[in-house]
Amino acid sequence: MAVVGNHAQALALAARTYGIPAHVVMPAISTPSKIEATKGYGAEVIFSGSTAQEREAVAAEVENRTGAVFVPPDFHPDIILGQGTTALELEEQVQELIEKDVTLSIHHKTPGDANGPGIPSRSINAQGSSSRKGFGQLDAVITPLGGGGLLSGVATALSGTGTLVFGAEPSFEGADDGRRSLASGKHITNVNSLTIADGLRTHMKYIPWTVISNREKVRGVFSVSEEQILQAMKLVLERMKVFVEPSAVVGLAVCLYDEDFRALVEKEGGEEGWDVGVVLSGGNTTVEAITKMFSVTEKRAERAAGKVDSHGERKAEDVPG
User: What is the rounded CA–CA span in Å between residue 197 and residue 314?
Assistant: First the structure.
């Protein structure tokens, strides 16, 4: 296979579990953490150039040399359907959470409402049917978009459920090929970007494109800047205490910072808004990489570490944490 990150490590582990040799083609620019993790699961790592064409050429050579079967990360139907189970797990988790605390959904009734506390609000149309989906069902799900396997899988799993599906990409150096493809109606097949969201440095593949270009399955794709990705990552690290890589948080960054997406939610969700499920797709990074991404001036770093006070003065105090 030619891939980095989750897919590489998953197949390396699966191959080791079943005693099968695994040969993983990774761009030489891949982060050390991804390379070492893949090797740690027993795979042979073969390096390639950074473009899709270079990776595929090396993968073909490995196939010829070893007789191995190529397992693509994002465009085989079985892989797409497997990644779509993310949506099923998310739905189950949401249902469990809301069963325990209905106030987690913005659609719950407030204590002053006629139905009483915790009773789902439903409007009835002229035909006598409810205009709302099942209580506890997400209004929308947003996932990162690189090769398109995850987004097309989630869109397939949620097709016909009433839950809208969106994709999120980095905009840096044209990495938002999915958004641009939808805008032009033409599938873009080449991306050369060094976005910090390194798991998304690839173009959307053809089979995912056939799903993602269907507006009945994917409502839209939005993109965010490098700084917006970093701010979303900082929020997850500091507030949620969850270790994530930049690629994982592009969907959250869209929810927080993309004005077009926020306007859509306001227009269609009204005063209530939407319950949105955000897929955080991986944690393939290191402390060293994160430190470099968030490098600041010495003065700001000392303030963040609590070594100087808000006035910039260095003081040692006997204060409990």
Answer: 36
Q: What are phi and psi of 286, to 5 degrees?
A: -135, 165
For residue 64, how many C-alpha atoms fall within 13 Å in the half-sphere facing its CB? 6
Arithmetic mean of pLDDT, 274-301: 85
**Among candidate residues 83, 91, 217, the one with its CA nearest the CA of residue 155:** 217
What is the pLDDT confidence band of residue 74, given thresholds at 50, 70 and 90? confident
> Which tokens belong to 265?
């939610």
Tokens, residue 4? 């980095």
DSSP labels, 231-272? HHHHHIIIII-----GGGGHHHHHHHH-HHHHHHHHHHHTTT
Q: Are 34 and 201 in contact (CB under 8 A)?
A: no
Q: ∠ CA 194-196-198 to the nearest 5 degrees?
A: 70
Could you tell me which of 266, 259, 161, 145 has the C-alpha nearest to residue 213?
A: 145
Structure tokens at 246: 């930049």
Q: What is the Cα–Cα distance from 112 to 260, expressed in whole angstroms? A: 33
Beta strand pairing call for 164-170 and 23-27: unpaired
Radius of gyration in angstroms for the set of CA atoms belonging to the chain, rounded to a whole number: 22
Residues 227 and 208: their CA atoms lie apart, in Å, by: 28
pTM recorded for the entire structure:
0.82
